[in-house]
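Order emerges. For instance:

***
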Amino acid sequence: MKDIKPIHDITDADFREFVKAVQDLARRAYPNPDRAGCPSSEVLRDVARQPRPSQHPVFRSHIVECSPCIAAMLAERTRIQALHHARRRMIVAVAASVCLIALLSGLWLWHRTPSFTRDQVASARDVPEIPVDLRPYSPARSDSGQSTRPPISVPIQRVKLKLYLAPGAPLGAYEVRILSNDLRTMRTQQVSAVLNDGVTSAVLAVNLADLPSGAYVLVLRPAREGEEWQQFPLVLGRSR
């Protein structure tokens, strides 16, 4: 009697060992070497797929009294559980990979934009907004019409540009760049386009104080694959 454990001392390993012993006993208790009356393999697989196989009518009428069918059903159920565990591990691995890629992409973009530190963006909150209407430069207009438009004029300082986008422009994240006249990237940043009173706009807070005056190009596109850049003439000058 000394070896009998109290119920509260039974461990998970003890319980698994008990279940295994019962299963081994069931595999040997009802021999049926001729497989008399055994259901097809497809039926056994169907029973094994059930949340509660013991409730299946074939289990009650035959499997419970046939060791070969019990063994086949248990083997199929073990295989199904192994597949489920493998699928769960794959889903977790894919989710972890997506998070890692997003983190690395964010870090890469952060290092690509040294001119836009958090301090600079925070200090730009006190800078008055400068409206920049891009709607006259809408791609829907002819090239000749756009070429007659004067370039957008922006002072060389810390600025906060409120960009008014063309009607129907997508909402959400945009990538914005300021290029030199020879198309070298001088600034790059992501902004968020929102819709207020039927007008789509985005705010670009940026420090231009260290750039020389002259002609530049402002380009932007929705931050998603397959979108084309829209470009606008830009002139940076000293504020008066």
